[in-house]
Amino acid sequence: MRLSRFVEWGLAISLLANLGLGCQALGGSVPLSLALTAVPAAIGIWLLARCRDPFQEAQILGQTSEILETIGDAFYALDRNGRFTYLNPKALTQLIKPPDQLLGRRFLEVFPEAAGSPLHVNCGDVMRDGKAREFVGVSPILKRWKSYLILPRPDGGILVHSRDVSAEKAAEQALLAERMKFGVVVEHVPIGLLFVEAPSGRVVLGNVPAKRLIGRSANDDPFPALVVWEAYDESGRAIEDQDHPLAITLATGEPAELVARYRRGDGTLAWMRVTTAPIHDMDSTVTGIVVALVDIDAERRSAEILRDGEARLRRAVEDAPHPIMVHADDGTVVHLSQAWTSATGYDRDDLGTIAGWTRRAYGAEAETVQRAIQSLHHLDGPVDEGEKTIRASDGSLRVWNFSSSPIGRDATGRRLIVTMAVDLTERKRAEARLLLLMREVDHRAKNVLTVVQSVLHLTRTDNPADFIAAVEGRLASMARAHTLLAANHWSGADLRSLIVDELAAYGGPGRMVIAGPPVAIAPEAAQAVAMNLHELATNAAKYGALSTVAGRVDVAWMVEPPDRGGCLTLDWVERGGPPVAAPEKIGFGSTVLRQTVETQLGGQLTLDWHPAGLMCRIAMPADCFSTSGVTLVPEGAVTVPAAADAAPGGRVLVVEDEALTALALEQVLMEAGFVVLGPVGRIEDALDILGSIRPDVAVLDVNLFGQDVYPVANRLVEMGVPFLFCSGYARLDGINDHLRRAPHLSKPVLADHLIATLNTLLGAGREDKAVA
């Protein structure tokens, strides 16, 4: 903007006058920036006034205008009425108004929001009393921090100089905030801090922890206390005055540190670390000392507790009943249980390091395992390492399952891992035995099914009823052999029990004599021997001695001495029956006898069809039997209930979860004249039937889809209904006395045996019950 000569002349005079008044008002001082801008402008105007040459006059006027136009701060002038008379470019930029909206107009007319602001008040005060004013405040127009200098003009107006100091103000506030933060940090750090002046030793600053530790504040001048502070070393010797850290640093200018038991402000002795560090100026002269007071009493007690804890850990590990190892990240085995060395056979000295352990236990895999163990120290929680095969000192292999977990650090800072092992060797062997047993069970089950298939194929008869009876009898014989083997954990079947079970249905006073030493038939031979006994008993019941009341059977066996072959010889002799003759054709029984004895068992069979009765000798080699560890079974035959007439219309509840078995039971019972309720295969269904119908008797399978049938049995006891158990279990465990009194028939059960038992339960002479 180019000013008129009149305006330029007045402005120069005003600048010079304002400069003088400003110096007087501000105590002889004026901002350097204002001086640097006002003086050149005033000099230019002065030169202009002296100049008489028109060309020079124009040149000076242009230079003065350029100075004011390019000044970096805002300048504007107001007359005595508050009207704008001049604004430099910076002022126009800040006020965001064009010149034609400002020049000649009153300040409050353009900026009414400034009314009552510090800027407005100070401008009015300068116009009234002619005294310059300087202040810092927020611009009512721009809302930013401004530094204002308001100078009076000779004509009653004012000159306003303003500079944006928002950045300086923000920096000042940030510095103040940092100082406050630093003060808060110093005051609240958990250690005592003192700033000591050197060389006087005067304490100029101290925080609250320092006051607490020393027992006095910085204003109390704790320097003498720091120099003569009561302290004792590890042995209890008092620390000399010249040995205190502050005294050392004051004397030498070097840092110093002392750990000792100091007398705290509360009178107690506590371990503390006192450290002093000098503060140097540019000439490396010590001008101050920083004193740090750290109460380490709790730390020292924690260290003692840690040492005690490590001792307890060592005792706990060494006495643990399981293999336990504590090892550090440097490869050292810190603690080792006695169980670990006992199980492996290695000495504790052999296992001082992880390398020593892996080299002995893992052989060629030692390095791989050692790296895996080292990686455990980077864990932040427990880990199951799984199963590993280790080698014991005697060369035997054992299977251990390892799990590890970090347990912190020891007193030296080493990271510790505890590794626990579970010896799975015996369990693995048991699992192998179980697997072998499962394979054997599978093998035996398939063999049984094959034998059943063979029985079905080889049984010949034109009468279906005879066919069913023959097959049932042979299967029942096999089942009894299996029951005996299961009772003896498949170690063998007692020969006397096999004979008694087969002849029980035909027993009676004087009808049979059984004699012989304790002998157990091998599991592999038990089924064949049982089948042979069944065929002999069936033949005797149909055609031989047991087919008449006067007939009898003598069964005797003996074990030959080793020098005579050591065989088991069994003699079957029938007497008192009808005359006997050799059969015209070889039947199923004879075929089974010869095939099983001579081919399967590797023995000898002799059949003598003597008219007085059949005589049969079976000789079995030593691998078919055992005489050691066999308990003598008391003599006496087990008899079955005598057959009784069925009670037509009697209602039988059948609870059986195997569909085919349930259908067979239903058919047998219906053919015997019973009314069948069910069959049902679930406990809930059986209880539902009992809730609406009262049966006369019940047949209960014990296991129904994994659940015991006992709730149904207990309900029958409450109702007074008799029942029997029909199960594949050899015996029933965990039942009460009421249930134990119920008959227990082992599957497979003969139809006649089942009917006879049910009729016995119903009671001889009991009145028939009509169907509800």
TrEMBL record:
InterPro entries: CheY-like_superfamily, HATPase_C_sf, PAC, PAS, PAS-assoc_C, PAS-like_dom_sf, PAS_4, Sig_transdc_His_kinase_HWE
Principal EC category: transferase
Modified residues (4-aspartylphosphate): D701
GO MF assignments: ATP binding; photoreceptor activity; protein histidine kinase activity
Sequence ranges assigned to domain PAS in this UniProt record: 66-108, 309-351
A single BP term in Gene Ontology: phosphorelay signal transduction system
Gene3D superfamilies: 3.40.50.2300, Histidine kinase-like ATPase, C-terminal domain (3.30.565.10), PAS domain (3.30.450.20)
Catalyzed reactions: ATP + protein L-histidine = ADP + protein N-phospho-L-histidine
Protein name (database record): histidine kinase
Organism annotation: Skermanella stibiiresistens SB22
Lineage: Bacteria, Pseudomonadati, Pseudomonadota, Alphaproteobacteria, Rhodospirillales
